[in-house]
């Protein structure tokens, strides 16, 4: 059965998002959601539905891949929205016994507000870092 992936990350990094989308699809994963720009003129009308759909897709995914690429001069940037999405994924596992793999591309910069929680979650095994070029496809 093909595993479903949701990609979280900064919507402003469309080149990187498309790279990771292609990466997962080339390994026969099905990418069911990823950050897509919303029209500025209809942003307030569209955002709630986009947000709800994104979280619903996290509940249906096998993997939540948090794409924390470099942004605005910050190494391995992780914004509040991506951290919230990661929290939601971890909560699904802790409360509802989901088997969602929460995978962070890289350990974020120590100046990121959520750094200490991420290090703790890594130690607890609640999340994992991408390793070996993210080649963890089940064999």
Q: What report would you give on this structure?
A:
This protein has 139 residues and is α/β, with parallel strands linked by helices. The protein has a single domain, classed as 3-Layer(aba) Sandwich (Rossmann fold). Helix content is 42%, strand content 15%. It has four helices and five strands; from the N terminus they run βαβαβαβαβ. The protein has helices at 14-26, 43-60, 80-96, 115-124, and strands at 4-9, 30-33, 63-67, 101-104, 128-129. A five-stranded parallel beta sheet has the order 2-1-3-4-5, sandwiched between helices. The mean pLDDT is 92.
Radius of gyration: 15 Å
**What order do the helices and strands follow?**
EHEHEHEHE
Based on DSSP secondary structure assignment, what is the total number of beta strands?
A: 5
CATH fold naming:
Rossmann fold
Weakly predicted, low-confidence segments: none
CATH-level-2 architecture: 3-Layer(aba) Sandwich
Query: Helix- and strand-based class?
Result: alpha/beta
- Give the count of helical stretches: 4
N-end to C-end Cα span: 12 Å
Mean pLDDT: 92
Q: What percent of residues adopt helix (DSSP H or I)?
A: 40-55%
Proportion of strand residues: 15-25%
Count of spatially separate domains: 1
Order of the strands making up the biggest sheet: 2-1-3-4-5
Give the biggest sheet: 5 strands, parallel
Shape summary: globular
CATH class: Alpha Beta
Structure in a nutshell:
This protein is of the alpha/beta class and 139 residues long. It contains 4 helices and 5 strands. The chain has a single domain (4-134), classed as Rossmann fold.
Write the layout of secondary structure elements.
Elements: E1 4-9, H1 14-26, E2 30-33, H2 43-60, E3 63-67, H3 80-96, E4 101-104, H4 115-124, E5 128-129
Parallel strand pairs: 1-2, 1-3, 3-4, 4-5
């Amino acid at each position: 059965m093909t595993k479903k992936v949701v990609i979280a990350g900064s919507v402003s990094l469309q080149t990187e998002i498309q790279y990771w989308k292609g990466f997962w699809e080339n390994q026969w994963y099905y990418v069911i959601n990823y950050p897509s720009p919303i029209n500025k003129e209809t942003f307030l009308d569209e955002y709630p539905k986009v947000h709800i759909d994104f979280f619903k897709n996290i509940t249906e995914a096998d993997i939540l891949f948090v794409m924390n690429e470099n942004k605005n001069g910050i190494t391995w940037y992780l914004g509040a929205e991506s951290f919230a999405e990661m929290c939601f994924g971890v909560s699904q596992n802790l409360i509802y016994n989901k088997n969602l793999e929460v995978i962070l591309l890289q350990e974020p910069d120590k100046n990121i507000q959520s750094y200490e929680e991420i290090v703790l979650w890594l130690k607890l095994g609640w999340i994992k870092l991408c390793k070996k070029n993210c080649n963890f496809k089940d064999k």
